[in-house]
Amino acid sequence: MIILFANQKGGVGKSTLAVLFANYLSLVQNKEVVIFDMDNQRSIYNKVQASKVLENNPLYEVEAAEMEQFSTIKEIVKEKEGLITILDVAGNIENDTLIPIFQGVDLIICPFSYDEFSVGATIDFSEVVKQLNDQAKIVFIPNRIKTTVKYETLESVNNVFSNFGAITKPLPERIDFQRISTFETPPVSFK
Ligand SMILES: Nc1ncnc2c1ncn2[C@@H]1O[C@H](COP(=O)(O)OP(=O)(O)O)[C@@H](O)[C@H]1O
Ligand SMILES: [Mg+2]
């Protein structure tokens, strides 16, 4: 199974949630996981390289890859039953190398926040994805939600996104998410 974390908006939590999800699959579900970091910024790959110096064995492999390598990666991973492949991409919809990726993955996870720019970019992104692959399954994750803020547009935004896919429960703003690693997940605390 190939799961893509994408949104053309930067800074919405794609890389953070990709790592958290990989940790969950690996630690809690005992799944075999691999992450391909296809974003030029290589934020996950660099994080792993830096922390390898200090920490023990990572939970799973993180590879740096180019988006052009998608079809080769797909061929390789489909041989490995049970393996969950996570892709982190920059998500710029002007980039044609994303087309086969949108068409070839099993699930697209799209973090966003309820501010005007993030919502607009997320709608544009979803429209392009659906045009390229009307079977695409998109899961929207409201991220960095502050309990003290009233999000006036929440219902109307969720209505629009529900035309493209499913919307999860919101994820709160959490300082410890800014120190996420591919070795462990901070303990969950509920208020
Ligand atoms: N739920 C959250 N709470 C607090 N900080 C977050 C949360 N999600 C993401 N961040 C922070 O927001 C910034 C952007 O997240 P990142 O995952 O790099 O976004 P993207 O990959 O979409 O560009 C990072 O500094 C990250 O630590
Ligand atoms: Mg990123």
Q: In angstroms, what separates the terminal alpha carbons?
A: 34 Å
The mean pLDDT is 93
The major β-sheet equals: 7 strands, parallel
Widest beta sheet: strand line-up: 3-2-4-1-5-6-7
Q: What is the C-level CATH assignment? A: Alpha Beta
Compressed to H and E, one letter per element, the order equals: EHEHEHEHEHEHE
Radius of gyration: 16 Å
Q: What's the CATH architecture name?
A: 3-Layer(aba) Sandwich
The percentage helix is: 25-40%
* Shape estimate: globular
Could you explain the architecture of this structure?
With 191 residues, the protein is of the alpha/beta class. The protein has one domain: 3-Layer(aba) Sandwich (Rossmann fold), CATH 3.40.50.300. 34% of the residues lie in helices and 18% in strands. The protein has 6 helices and 7 strands. It has helices at residues 14-27, 43-52, 70-78, 99-104, 116-132, 154-161; strands at 2-5, 32-37, 61-64, 83-88, 107-112, 138-142, 165-167. Strands 3-2-4-1-5-6-7 form a 7-stranded parallel sheet, sandwiched between helices. Strand 5 (107-112), helix 5 (116-132) and strand 6 (138-142) form a beta-alpha-beta unit. The longest helix has 17 residues, at 116-132. The model has no long low-confidence stretch (mean pLDDT 93). The chain binds adenosine-5'-diphosphate and magnesium ion (MG). Residues 14-15, 39, 43, 88 line the site of magnesium ion.
